[in-house]
């Protein structure tokens, strides 16, 4: 059902993305929302309500939609991850759905309307690629990337341009990688990590709705996650943004990235930036 809902929303987006978008500001951080966001979200929420009327829903645009009293199952809906890209005509966006049990993600679906591909995962049962076959990270990174990894960076909309921690961490990481992508669509980056197209992702004060679906796909494919300070990572939708920062990477790369992120002082961003 989750795959079908994500793909139906993707079909809606693909059919209307080249038409009038009705772009309007969202908050004070430069984010935007379009009529596509709300239309895709309405479609997904309608399907969730029809199949699981008692489940709670946390949707990107609608917020918290209550379910039955005492219900532990919660859906997170990101109907259009990459709205800013769509608004400027850049075809990098995705649809994400995650199901959480007692705040812990147990199912994730990411659909890419541009390519028509879908990735999914169930906790403890692995990830599936677009062909329906198990998705597993290769044993080794792609040639030339053993010491020069390709990374992605994501941060929450509340992070300002002058944030000293974000600036210090990005700068330090860029000195230690071949390239750092900032896609404005974290769900796309998560599927890239799961496929081995990139080697790691670092997130600073990330948006909760962007996390569970893609993170579960990447983790079930073989990526490992830690907090920015190197502590074990526990993703829960009830945690504040300050506890959601992460490093996700191929297992053999994780410690190297943590050598960089763990040195950044979370109070002022001070850290040595030498190689």
Automatic annotation (TrEMBL):
InterPro entries: Inositol_monophosphatase-like. It comes from Actinomadura luteofluorescens. It holds the Pfam family Inositol_P. Mg(2+) binds at residues 60, 78, 80-81, 210. Its EC number is 3.1.3.25. Keywords: Hydrolase, Magnesium, Metal-binding. This is Myo-inositol-1(Or 4)-monophosphatase. GO terms for biological process: inositol metabolic process; signal transduction. The lineage of its organism: Bacteria, Bacillati, Actinomycetota, Actinomycetes, Streptosporangiales. Its cofactor is Mg(2+). One of its GO terms (molecular function) is inositol monophosphate 1-phosphatase activity. The keyword Hydrolase applies.
